[in-house]
Specification:
There is one protein chain. The chain is an alpha+beta fold and about 270 residues long. It is about 30% helix and about 25% strand. It has eight helices and twelve strands. Strand 9 and strand 10 form a beta hairpin. It is elongated, with a radius of gyration of 43 Å.
Length: about 270
């Protein structure tokens, strides 16, 4: 075997054509081939040698990343709030998130008294963690009395109270022992069922913003009632209520004019019952 010095001297004496032939035969590599790295083995693939293995498409039906676990309603609410909440505030949101709305039946005419009984019992027994709001569903109504408009508060669910609570055996027994409470509405006596979220939202929306701010009219008449006109060109005439427009507070009264029944639109204030 030739040493390196002898080999270099021999190659220096060879013509350039012989050197190239010797390199092609595998004895030596040229400078260009020596610079090739391992990545250049992929030059013949689509995308070239810079192709990243992680960028390769996953087989059909196989996801490249593990699926995220579904978020709870409480987590979604917290994630949607662009606020820095304290630990107490987060705990309160989670507590209220575990509650549902239940409806209980109370003695008619004593709904507000029963509500006060429930509120007092919750505080006395330190059960605030298991209860939220206690509501008697009311709204402002405009009624017609003695020819005048009066705004009063009326219960639109008489005999019923809405209770926001965490339902379990202890809380169920607690509510059933409150004076004035007769029973839970929905489900069975052993397992009361809450009202749906949609129904709760509808009721709560009606309490806070009745009819989107429109005046709610209580109509003291029904279709077919006889009324006497007290104002306008048909004063003292008697007719029969044919239609009632709750939104506008108007009546359409059929009045006999020259032997022909004619519809006349009148305000509630313009008529009185016969």
């Amino acid at each position: 075997m030739l040493d390196d010095g002898t080999k270099e001297e021999r190659q220096a004496d060879l013509p350039e054509e012989d050197l190239q032939a010797e390199a092609a035969a595998g004895g030596e590599t040229t400078d260009d081939s020596a610079d090739l790295g391992g990545d250049d083995l992929f030059f013949d693939l689509p995308g070239g040698g810079d192709r990243d293995v992680d960028d390769a498409p996953a087989p059909d039906g196989v996801s490249g990343a593990p699926a995220a676990a579904p978020m709870s309603e409480e987590d979604e609410l917290l994630a949607s709030l662009d606020l820095e909440l304290s630990s107490d505030e987060v705990a309160e949101i989670e507590r209220r998130g575990r509650m549902k709305w239940f409806v209980i039946h109370a003695n008619t005419g004593h709904e507000n008294k029963v509500k006060r009984n429930i509120d007092m019992a919750i505080k006395t027994n330190s059960m605030e963690d298991s209860f939220g709001e206690i509501l008697v569903a009311t709204q402002e109504v405009t009624e017609m009395k003695d020819g005048k408009r009066n705004v009063v508060k009326r219960k639109f669910f008489p005999s019923y109270i809405l209770v926001e609570m965490i339902m379990n055996k202890d809380t169920q027994h607690f509510i059933n022992t409150i004076p004035g409470v007769t029973r839970f509405i929905g489900g069975t006596p052993l397992k009361p069922e809450p009202i749906s979220r949609e129904e709760a939202d509808r009721i709560l929306g009606r309490i806070s913003e009745p009819e989107a701010g429109r005046e709610v009219m209580e109509i003291p008449y029904e279709v077919g009632d006889s009324v006497q006109v007290m104002d306008g060109p048909f004063t003292e005439w008697v007719g029969v209520v044919n239609e009632i427009n709750h939104d506008k507070g108007k009546l359409k009264v059929m009045i006999s004019i020259f032997g022909s029944e004619t519809p006349v639109e009148l305000d509630f204030l313009q008529v009185k019952p016969v």
